[in-house]
């Protein structure tokens, strides 16, 4: 009896260890290929045992990003990684599908390259493992923010009044004239109307979907910064500003381009300067760039602007930057002189107000937002 007992133990150990992964299919994929921060989706695991012999226990060891939160599970987090374990029991010829509910916590492109499968005999005395290539990928786009609440026009800082409407208007379609105010740029002055009225008058521009927009993000968080970004949270806000502007351009049907002195994870030595186009496909490609954007400086911002500013004319140019200096102010003025309307978005709420250009419409981050 003892011989038969131990022989049975050895036999089952041999069978289940030897044939655990024979005709066993494992697949792991996200329910969506694209999502935004805060979206909920599913990680779908499918295991199919295509043989008569059952699999008494199977453990799938999943390594993903810590920024994909698995609801209702106990996971192990180490730096940027999250480890989740999934357990199965499979009868002969059985297929099992499991859904993990996920929440996207941060922008980025997240990939599950491999999953380690572990199995063994009935008693757990012997175990075998095998890596399975899955290649599950999801691009998480940055979420939108309320620009009117999050940014303050510098002309109203003393009264601490938040601008209620700043949406870009078309400087080339004039609906009439009105009296000049201190926050109007000098290139909007209507000189014939000024001479006629005897006081400064400016063009009153109408809103139109034919306006062109150029969104330029300075990836540097401070003036002298090389390679990696120091104040990452500021640039993350800048990326969300760019995403919000892209969404508005899409809804208004206006041509838009995006430029930054940073790079994506795919091309780590190449700055970004897209073509000017409109439509869902074009904006979608730029949103993917924002998801893949690395917080790393490839080229000094002022040198980068010197290369590209000649390609912008008759545009609403939005400069998004964490800091301000004389060089950036002069860049803004130079762009404005080429039949462009320029607006500055400053991401540092503690910026020195004395350095701001008085002749350029400027908005400062109010700090009223949660930063991940």
In a few lines, what is going on in this structure?
The chain has 372 residues and is α+β, with helices and mostly antiparallel strands.
Give an account of the 3D structure.
With 372 residues, this protein is α+β, with helices and mostly antiparallel strands. It folds into two domains: 17-141, Immunoglobulin-like; 147-173 and 208-365, 3-Layer(aba) Sandwich (Rossmann fold), CATH 3.40.50. The chain is built from seven helices and 23 strands. It has helices at residues 2-18, 147-150, 191-197, 232-252, 280-292, 301-308, 326-336, and strands at residues 24-30, 34-36, 40-49, 55-65, 68-70, 76-78, 81-90, 95-104, 108-120, 127-141, 151-153, 174-179, 201-205, 213-217, 227-228, 256-260, 263-264, 272-273, 293-294, 296-297, 316-321, 341-346, 361-365. The model is unreliable at 158-168 and 206-210 (pLDDT under 50).
Strand content: 35-45%
Count of separate DSSP helical elements: 7
The major pleated sheet works out as: 7 strands, mixed
CATH class of the largest domain: Alpha Beta
- Tally of DSSP β-strands: 23
What is the CATH third-level topology name of the largest domain?
Rossmann fold
The N- and C-terminal alpha carbons lie at a distance of 64 Å
Instruction: Please tell me how large the radius of gyration is.
Output: 28 Å
Helix and strand composition category? alpha+beta
Residue share in helices? 10-25%
The CATH architecture of the largest domain = 3-Layer(aba) Sandwich
Spans of 5+ residues with little confidence (pLDDT < 50)? 158-168, 206-210
Q: Give the strand order, joined by hyphens, for the main sheet.
A: 11-23-22-21-14-16-18
Q: Could you spell the SSE succession in H and E letters? A: HEEEEEEEEEEHEEHEEEHEEEHEEHEHEE
Q: Tally the structural domains.
A: 2
Mean pLDDT: 85
Q: Indicate the overall shape.
A: elongated
């Amino acid at each position: 009896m003892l011989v038969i007992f131990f022989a049975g133990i050895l036999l089952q150990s041999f069978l289940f260890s030897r044939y655990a992964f024979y005709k066993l299919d494992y697949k792991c994929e996200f329910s969506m290929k694209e999502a935004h921060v805060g979206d909920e989706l599913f990680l779908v695991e499918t295991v199919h045992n295509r043989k008569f012999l059952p699999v008494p226990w199977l453990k799938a060891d999943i390594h993903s990003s810590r920024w994909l939160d698995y609801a209702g599970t106990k996971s192990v987090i180490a730096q940027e990684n999250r480890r989740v374990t999934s357990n199965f029991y499979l009868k002969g010829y059985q297929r099992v599908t499991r859904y993990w509910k996920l929440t996207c916590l941060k922008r980025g492109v997240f990939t599950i390259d491999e999953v380690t499968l572990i199995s063994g005999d009935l008693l757990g005395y012997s175990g075998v493992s095998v890596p399975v290539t899955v290649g599950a990928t999801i691009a998480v786009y940055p979420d939108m923010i309320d620009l009117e609440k999050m940014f303050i026009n510098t002309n109203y800082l003393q009264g601490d009044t938040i601008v209620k409407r700043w949406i870009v208007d078309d400087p080339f379609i004039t609906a009439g004239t009105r009296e000049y105010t201190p926050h109007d740029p000098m290139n909007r002055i209507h000189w014939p109307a000024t001479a006629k009225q005897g006081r400064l008058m400016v063009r009153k521009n109408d809103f139109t979907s034919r306006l062109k927009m150029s969104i330029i993000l300075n990836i540097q968080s401070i003036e002298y910064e090389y390679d990696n970004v120091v104040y990452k949270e500021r640039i993350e806000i800048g990326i969300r500003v760019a995403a919000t502007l892209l969404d508005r351009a899409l809804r208004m049907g206006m041509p838009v381009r995006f430029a930054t002195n940073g790079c994506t994870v795919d091309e780590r030595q190449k700055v970004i300067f897209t073509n000017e186009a409109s439509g869902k496909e074009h904006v979608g490609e730029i949103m993917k760039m924002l998801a893949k954007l690395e917080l790393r400086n490839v080229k000094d911002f002022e040198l980068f602007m010197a290369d590209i500013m000649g390609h912008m004319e008759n545009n609403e140019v939005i400069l998004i930057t964490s800091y301000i200096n004389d060089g950036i102010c002069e860049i803004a003025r130079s762009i404005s002189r080429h039949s462009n309307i320029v607006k500055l978005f400053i991401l540092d709420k503690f910026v020195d107000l004395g350095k701001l250009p008085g002749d350029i419409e400027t908005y400062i981050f109010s700090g009223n937002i949660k930063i991940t």
